[in-house]
Design brief:
The chain has 250 residues and is mostly helical. 75% of the residues lie in helices and 0% in strands.
């Protein structure tokens, strides 16, 4: 059943597939971002307690969710790479880590901007905030470890192992507002419960989560293609690709 996936274990095939998908995801990402931001920042009603300052959730919440989603995808790729020895999975770990780190940084910065008017401080050692900061450090550690080795095959395995070790932080982040008495508010959107947001605020938030997800895929495809070229630069097909690109520019 999975035989159709086998050709894409080859870097050349995966590079070509990523190139075909990239324009479609990029266009859809641009459209959803424009709709989501306009809807959330201009048309969603102000919160009765927080006023217009609540609108930062249209950046903060999607960024925080994608920070965890990016790490989850890294962990899956790391597991596949270590168990089935698929080099592309290890490349995916190295590709995703900087993107996840940026999303985590955005979540922390926007959270601090939101916390200042709500809590009276830019930063508090809240369980959710602290575990999110640890996630950023884990991302940076994976990036540093991967770049510490000249042998990228060894670097990929080391980064994959560290990624799987860091998975323990994900449930801590998610359940921190349940396990501990924290300043951070609980889940607004739940799979099993009725959302605590008004639909006029919820729908633009869902749109922005979708837009951020598409943005993550766009960045992932772009970096994945670059990583393949960097790791496969000694291959004949990469040489031919560079020659054709150079001729097109001439």
């Amino acid at each position: 059943m999975w035989k159709w996936l086998h050709p894409y274990a080859k870097p050349e095939k995966s590079y070509q597939l990523a190139g075909k998908l990239l324009p479609w995801f990029a266009c859809l990402c641009l459209i959803t971002f424009m709709v989501g931001l306009t809807w959330g920042l201009l048309f969603a009603p102000a919160d009765y307690q927080q006023g217009d300052s609540f609108r930062i959730i249209y950046i903060h919440v999607p960024a925080a969710m994608l920070a965890m989603l990016a790490y989850s995808s890294m962990a899956i790729a790391a597991f596949i790479g270590l168990v089935w020895q698929i080099r592309l999975s290890e490349m995916m770990v190295a590709t995703t880590a900087p993107i996840g780190a940026v999303f985590t940084f955005i979540a922390l910065v926007t959270g601090a901007a939101w916390g200042k008017p709500m809590w009276g401080a830019w930063w508090v050692w809240d369980a959710r905030l602290t575990s999110e900061l640890i996630l950023l450090f884990v991302y940076l550690g994976i990036i540093a470890l991967y770049n510490a080795f000249s042998d990228k095959d060894l670097a990929g395995r080391a980064a994959s192992i560290l990624t799987l070790v860091g998975v323990i932080n994900l449930p801590i982040i998610h359940y921190s507002v349940v396990w501990w008495n924290t300043l951070h508010q609980g889940a607004t959107i739940s799979k099993f419960d009725t959302p605590s947001m008004a639909p006029e605020m919820l729908w633009p938030l869902l749109m922005m989560i979708f837009a951020f997800s598409l943005f993550f895929i766009v960045l992932l495809l772009m970096r994945f293609r670059n990583e393949i070229l960097a790791r496969e630069n000694h291959r004949y097909w990469v040489t031919q690709l560079v020659i054709h690109k150079f001729k097109d520019k001439i």
